Request: fold
Amino acid sequence: MSEIDKKIVNDFVNNKIEFVTTVPCKQLAGVIDEIDSNDSIYHIPSNKEDEGIGLCAGAFMGGKRSAIIMQNTAIGVTVNTLVTLTQFYRLPLPMLISYRGELGEPVACQVEMAVHTKALLAQLHIPTYHFHNEDDVNELDAILKHTFMCNKPVAILTDATFWKGY
Amino acid sequence: MIRSEVLKNLIPVISDHFVVCNIGLPSQELHLMDDQPTNFYMLGTMGLSSSIGLGVALAQKQKVISIDGDGSVLTNFGTLPTIANNVADNFILLIIDNGSYGSTGDQPTYAGMKTSLTNVARACGCENVIECDAEDAVSTMQVALDSNKMTIIVCKCESGNIKVPVIEMDPVVIRDRFMRELESRNA
Reply:
C-alpha cells in the first residue's frame, strides 16, 4: 500500500468516517485494502453503487459518518439515488471516485463515460474536486470537513495521472 | 388480505421499533395509520429500503425493521447477498409480497410467477428466512423480534390498494426527527 492510500484513509479516520462502502476498482485497490484493514472503519462492499449510497444514508442516520468509493461510471448508475435520497434528505456523502477515461487510459470505452462525468456532476450541482497532481491529495481533509459542514454529496475525482498510471 | 391490512395488523408489534418504509403506498399507509418519529418514509428511490435499514442497523443498537415489497427487492437484488454477509441481529427485513407493483397500478411481478424471493434470499446466504401467509404476519414478526437474530420475512398477501393521501412532510423533517429519536434511545 502506498503513502497516498494511507494518507487518504487517515483523513477519513480523522474526520470520523466509520462506515465505508466500496465497489471494486483497480486504481483504488490500495485504498480499498487500507479501508478493509482499518479497525475503526466498518467496510461493507456493495454490489451496485446505488445500493451503496442507500447503505451510507442508513449508516449516517444511525450516527456513523459514511463514505462511498466507486468509479466514475457509477455516476450514470446513481443519478436518481443522489437526487431523491442524498440531496432530497440533505445527507452528507463523500464520494471518492476513480476518474477512468482520462490521460493514460488504455480502455477506449472508459473515455465514453469520462466525457460526461463532470457535466453530469455539474448538472446535479454536486461540488466536485479533481485530483490530478500528487499534491492535490492535501486538500482531502478540507473537502471532507466541507462535506459534513454542508450536508451534500461531494465528488472527489482521482485520475490516472494522480495515481501515476496503473 | 391486502398490504394495508397486513400493515394495520402489524402496527401494535412494530410501532415501538424503528421502521424504514418503502416508497409509495406502503409509506403513505404507515404514515396515515401510525405516523411517528421512529418511521423513516422513503419519498423516492425505489428499491433501497433494505439497504437504508441495514445501514441504520449496522451503525447502532436499536432494532430496525425495513418494510419492502417484492417489486422493490427485485429492483435491488444485490441487497440480499450484502445482507447475508453483513449480519446485524437488530435488523429485520419484511418483504410484503403481493406479486405486484402496487403503487403503479398492480402490474404483476416475477415474484408472483416462477420466482420465489424466499428461495432467492436463502440462496444468497441469508440464514433466518421465513415465508408466511398474511394472517400469520403478526406472530411471525413477534417471533423475529424476540429472537434477536437477523431475520427476513417474506409475507405473502393479495394484491390491492386503499386510497391514501401523499406524504406532505418535508424529507429533512422526516430524517431529522428519525435521527433525534434514534440518538435519544441510544443515549
